[in-house]
Backbone:
């Protein structure tokens, strides 16, 4: 029967309509347009409803927030979108976000049995459809207020990790207050990922839903400046730190302080959070030259290069020191960038920046690379080819070579142990070296992904609930000495 079912599988995902590349580089509207209900039901019918077996991993085990994927897909097969959403919401606080930016190809879809011989079931796009359907049709189920536990929790940082902790603990009856440094909540979802990948109205709707469950959010509230974690501990029964990795890494090469060289963070924040793409309606200036060079090969670099084109750059170039196969960005983002005309200068690394007499960048000197043996990351190590230096003219350089943990909370909380990378040291349950303080997401893992930050948040919320309700014991200091190594 299962074999018969498998032989009837439509081999490819039902196509996702998209804005065509020539049009979309002129606007900031979302690139994938979305699918209709009929197509989504057909996509769901590609699922075999596999039975769990110790012999193989299934979709479900690839989801860090443990959504019961076969169960919600079954409801979609039967056309019951409301029930499908109810199943998703049991575990997931940001479904419309994850349906868009989750690296599902390496998570749930990476384990899909259909994907062994065909394209996997489009789990991400089904989740996206359902979340959009719920929002557009106003089908949010009523959020019943739980019985109050009388406990108060402070969450520092309103990104995916903090929002997940807040949503989960509020559902359990705790009084949760989120302290967020910026004027909007969502973390990288609002200030980093561009509108054409993740519309900000969608992030706002997800945050509003979390607020409906009773979570209070205090924006423009920087912990470490207005108050410290120690101050919070005097008023709250527990604190979660989810302050992310928003500190840009620099190349530290000669000339890096020339005008026209920006960190990816500054560039994307100006465009997304401060709406520079709507200048002069929004009072945020942004200058991109005719030729923009972005350093790096991850999602952040793709976002910069594609944003530069939309802001009017005639040429947008990615300079990356390894080859195409090692590009860390999601394949979908690389594909979209190529379609839009981003040029990839691969196996090349910057050497120095060259400025004009007014202190503006006018060129980058770079060197060709070849790949050697794999390094600690498992990827082949790039090696300079001596004498292969070349010059690229450019007016703007965007440095997208990674982010480090935000240092303010560790700096202002002396007893919080950190690792040599500046991340907060945690045990497997998200506890830090300071009793009552938990941490998760990019601040403890280093820059990672939305769904891993949410998975961390879920785990920490479970431990926090246990700590608040039954077991206030805390691990010995040596656990964190080890975690800090
Ligand atoms: P963040 O999202 O960084 O949120 C931390 C929050 O804490 C922020 O709102 C910050 O303002 C706040 N904060 C910091 N310090 C303080 C303080 N002292 N007091 C109060 N608040 C504070 N991941 C994917 O899965 N898919 C993608 O396609 C993807 N694309 C990306 C594109 C870009 C441009 C970037 C930068 C990252 C991308 N990522 C992507 C990574 C992903 O966004 C992060 O891993 C994720 O957002 C981490 O969540 P977090 O909650 O730990 O931190
Ligand atoms: Fe897959 Fe991400 Fe949705 Fe989990 S949250 S089911 S990993 S798309
Ligand atoms: Fe369906 Fe794929 Fe999950 Fe099997 S592994 S239940 S086919 S989504």
Residues:
């Amino acid at each position: 029967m299962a074999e018969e079912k498998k032989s009837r599988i439509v081999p490819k995902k039902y196509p996702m309509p998209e804005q065509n590349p020539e049009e979309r580089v002129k606007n900031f509207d979302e690139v994938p347009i979305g699918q209709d209900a009929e197509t989504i039901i057909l996509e769901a019918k590609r699922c075999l409803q596999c039975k769990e077996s110790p012999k193989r991993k299934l979709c479900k085990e690839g989801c860090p927030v443990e959504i019961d994927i076969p169960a919600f897909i079954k409801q979609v097969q039967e056309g019951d979108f409301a029930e499908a959403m109810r199943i998703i919401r049991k575990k997931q606080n940001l479904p419309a976000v994850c349906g868009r930016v989750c690296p599902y190809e390496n998570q749930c879809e990476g384990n899909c049995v259909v994907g062994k011989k065909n394209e996997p079931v489009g789990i991400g796009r089904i989740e996206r459809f359902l979340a959009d359907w719920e929002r557009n049709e106003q089908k949010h189920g009523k959020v019943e207020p739980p019985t109050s536990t009388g406990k108060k929790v402070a969450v520092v940082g309103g990104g995916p990790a903090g929002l997940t902790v807040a949503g989960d603990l509020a559902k359990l009856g705790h009084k949760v207050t989120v302290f967020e440094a910026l004027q909007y909540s969502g973390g990288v979802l609002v200030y980093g990922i561009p509108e054409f990948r993740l519309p900000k109205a969608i992030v706002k709707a997800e945050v509003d839903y979390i607020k409906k469950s009773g979570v209070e959010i205090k924006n423009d509230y920087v912990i470490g400046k207005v108050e410290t974690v120690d101050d919070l501990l005097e008023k709250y029964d527990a604190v979660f730190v989810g302050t992310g990795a928003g500190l840009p890494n620099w190349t530290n090469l000669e000339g890096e302080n020339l005008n026209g060289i920006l960190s990816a963070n500054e560039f994307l924040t100006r465009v997304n959070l401060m709406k520079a793409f709507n200048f002069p309606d929004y009072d945020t200036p942004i200058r991109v030259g005719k030729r923009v060079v972005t350093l790096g090969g991850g999602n952040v670099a793709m976002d910069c290069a594609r944003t530069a084109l939309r802001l009017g750059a005639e040429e947008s170039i990615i300079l990356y020191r390894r080859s195409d196969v090692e590009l860390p960005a999601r394949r979908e983002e690389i594909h979209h960038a190529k379609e839009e005309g981003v040029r990839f200068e691969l196996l090349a690394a910057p050497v120095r920046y060259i400025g004009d007499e007014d202190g503006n960048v006018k060129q980058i000197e770079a060197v060709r690379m070849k790949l050697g043996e794999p390094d600690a990351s498992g990827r082949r190590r790039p090696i300079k080819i001596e004498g292969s230096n070349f010059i690229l003219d450019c007016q703007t350089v965007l440095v997208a070579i990674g982010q480090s943990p935000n240092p303010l909370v560790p700096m202002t909380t002396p007893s919080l142990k950190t690792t040599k990378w500046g991340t907060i040291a945690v045990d497997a349950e998200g506890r830090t070296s300071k009793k009552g303080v938990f941490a998760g997401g990019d601040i403890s893992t280093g820059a990672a992904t939305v769904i891993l930050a949410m998975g961390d948040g879920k785990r920490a919320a479970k431990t926090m609930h246990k700590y608040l309700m039954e077991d206030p014991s805390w691990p010995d200091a040596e656990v964190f000495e080890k975690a800090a190594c």
User: Anything to note?
Assistant: The longest strand covers residues 361-374. The mean pLDDT is 94. The first helix runs from residue 2 to 7. The chain has 18 helices and 16 strands.
